[in-house]
Design a protein that fits this description.
Layout: H1 2-18, H2 21-34, H3 39-61, E1 68-69, E2 76-78, H4 81-85, E3 90-91, H5 93-110, E4 114-116, E5 140-144, E6 147-148, E7 154-155, H6 177-183, E8 203-204, H7 206-217, E9 222-226, H8 229-234, E10 243-244, E11 256-261
Bound molecules: zinc ion.
């Protein structure tokens, strides 16, 4: 019983993290059971099969399901390759085109790349990419802010290993939704602050980050952009209808930009 529960737990975790990992685990479990393989051989077989699917098969299969993998390098790159290894970098062709176009313009302007965070899984509409419930149809993506290092120089790096969780806090006198949401009991709103350590002392480059927001808002396909209300005010987007507040049920957006297309 305990063994079955452990296998089920692994399947659930792999499915939540990678979408396909759980099914692949189950498949390898049955195949290696028939072949009577030792545990270490089963694990090796699973790892090999997973890598083959994540790096070769799924990127070729995803277009059948209306998704494309985002680029791995160049003007548009992941903050962490783990995002891609976990199949969390898939978007619709329309969103792909917006991001590639915008990041090419950004690179031309600043000479550095745009970093993306979580996007969507490769298969099926309605399958959420936890913990982002809305990232379930290929039409949503999170982008990292742009940062300067301690010496004030541009960097393509981000201050935490996942790109989330290092907040550009409200200043005195600014609207404070992290405080308002916490008071209303939305404990998840600023949760990452307590989990994600700062690995580099980088400062948000407001000019370059708001350039990204301004640019993506200009695409007809883009319907909504979420940043925290105090940054919306501070960066001059108060009258931009596409830049919105996402409600206390989401998480803070003063560490990344969320954008979605129609
Ligand atoms: Zn998002």
């Amino acid at each position: 019983m305990l063994k079955i529960a452990a296998h089920l737990l692994v399947i659930v975790i792999l499915t939540v993290l990678t979408q396909l990992g759980g099914v692949l685990y189950l498949l390898i479990y049955f195949i290696s059971g028939k072949l009577k393989l030792y545990l270490w051989k089963r694990m090796l077989l699973f790892l090999g099969a997973y890598l083959l699917f994540a790096t070769v098969i799924i990127p070729h299969l995803a277009p059948v399901f209306g998704r494309k993998p985002l680029p791995l390098s160049g003007n548009l790159s992941p903050v962490s390759y783990l995002t891609c290894l976990l199949n969390r970098h898939y978007v619709s062709p329309e969103l792909y085109d917006v991001l590639v176009d915008m990041s090419a313009n950004y690179h031309e302007e600043y000479g550095v790349s745009v970093n993306y965070l979580d996007a969507n899984f490769p298969f099926f509409n309605g399958f959420p990419l936890m913990p982002h419930l809305s990232h379930n149809d290929g039409k949503k993506v999170d982008l990292a802010f742009s940062y300067n290092d301690a010496a004030g120089q541009m960097t393509e790096e981000v201050p935490s290993w996942i790109g989330y969780g290092i907040y550009d806090e409200p200043k005195v006198g600014e609207v404070d939704f992290p405080g308002i949401c916490a008071e209303k009991g939305y404990w998840q709103y600023g949760l990452l602050k307590w989990i994600i350590p700062i690995i580099e002392d980088y400062v948000v480059d407001a000019g370059r980050t708001s350039w990204i927001v301004t640019e993506i808002a200009q695409y007809d396909e883009v319907s909504k952009i979420f940043i925290e209300p105090h940054l919306k005010e501070r960066w001059g987007f108060a009258s931009n209808d596409k830049v919105r507040f996402h409600s206390c049920r989401a998480v803070r957006h003063d560490d990344h930009i969320h954008l979605q297309i129609k």
